[in-house]
Amino acid sequence: MSFYIDFIADYGAKTGCDDLAFSEVNRRLLEEFSSRNMDFPLIKNLSVRAFNTVETGFAVAQIAYNSRLGKNHIVYHNTAPRKDELAARTNNAGEFLAVAELANGVRVIGVYGGYTFSFLGAPVYRVKCAADGSQFRSRDVFPPCVASLATHADKPLTEWELLGEQVQDVPSVPKDIVCSVDGYGNIKTNVHLQDSIQSIEINGISLSVVTGAGIFSVADGRLIFAPGSSGWNEYHFNEICLRGGSAAQAFNYPNPGDKVTVK
Question: Which of 20, 105, 139, 147 could be 32's S-S partner, Cβ–Cβ 3.0 to 4.6 Å?
Answer without folding.
Answer: 147
